Amino acid sequence: MSVIETNGLTKRYPRVTALDGLTIDIQPGVTGLVGANGAGKSTLIKILLGLAPATEGTASVLGLDSAAEGETIRAQVGYMPEHDCLPPDVSATEFVVHMACMSGLPRTAARERTADTLRHVGLYEERYRPMGGYSTGMKQRVKLAQALVHDPKLVLLDEPTNGLDPAGRDEMLGLIRRIHSDFGISVLVTSHLLRELERTSEHIVVIDGGRLLRSQTTASFVEATASLAIEVTDSDAHPDGTAALRAALAEVGVETVTTPGRQIHLEITDEGVYDTVRDAVVELGLGLVRMERGRHEIAEVFQSRGSVGGAGGGADGGVDRAGDQAADVSNAEVTR
Ligand SMILES: Nc1ncnc2c1ncn2[C@@H]1O[C@H](COP(=O)(O)OP(=O)(O)OP(=O)(O)O)[C@@H](O)[C@H]1O
């Protein structure tokens, strides 16, 4: 059974279309929902939980209608919101016990579950101190614990790695993987960083401007978005070897993407592209410093979305938003 299904889901605010005819079908397991800021991820989660009405279309979670059965959904689903929502003068233990009781657990069971869950997310002695003094990483763990404490069938995690340093991100991603592998709970996790979702999720859904861009298994996604990174030397005949190679590849119909670090990236559409690059480098008399298979960054996924137009302002608006976001993950610039 699908854990989440939407059909033609649309959400219009007075000035913005946050979701635009979104149709997705998410199966049990860990699914990554990736999109730039403003792509519509939080809006989707709020509609799924029955916290905001859709303008058009339908949504269901665990087979329950989001519009009519929000309360039942929220009893069976855990939700980790994106923003800081923790009362500063309350301890993690008091807060999570309170949330467990709100979910319907008796007080004794709530205390036991809270102790187990806080231990699971890696909060020990600190759990008795007021949360106002917690680091971002500790706060994110408390937010995760309150989403898990009532033993949900599904958790919706909105940007759980936001504000964390690389080590904190890795720890959080490890915890997310274990939610499914240790407890069998399905996970929908959002991020604007494709890389971290690739490592965590079995399935990836990409949205932009409230529209579906891609929905596929992570393995096929990574395969479909494989790219080749090339770096060449300059020569007397070609003082800018990178530009010369780009021009030569363009002549034989190979599209390239360049980065400020003199790397040329191109999509591996078929394995013959390796020979094409080698021949072009030899022909120009350049030295080949690097030719390695890499992966596309999110900016490139947005830029190559081709058949799918942007919502609320057209395709250009969508690319611009993705472009802003891309500063986080890539400095790629498309040259066609
Ligand atoms: N209550 C609201 N009223 C008006 N516009 C809204 C409201 N909530 C969201 N929006 C707009 O809808 C669009 C989608 O926002 P949403 O928060 O769902 O995106 P997101 O992908 O979660 O991004 P972020 O990670 O930045 O929150 C944005 O343009 C946002 O400004």
Automatic annotation (TrEMBL):
SMART domains given in the database record: AAA (SM00382)
InterPro entries reported in the protein's UniProt record: AAA+_ATPase (IPR003593), ABC_transporter-like_ATP-bd (IPR003439), P-loop_NTPase (IPR027417)
Region (Disordered): 305-336
Protein keywords: ATP-binding, Nucleotide-binding, Transport
A Pfam family assignment: ABC_tran
Gly residues composition-biased segments: 307-317
Domain ABC transporter: 4-234
TM segment ranges: none
GO terms, molecular function: ATP binding; ATP hydrolysis activity
Protein family membership: Belongs to the ABC transporter superfamily.
Name by which UniProt lists this protein: ATP-binding cassette domain-containing protein
Species this chain originates from: Streptomyces mimosae
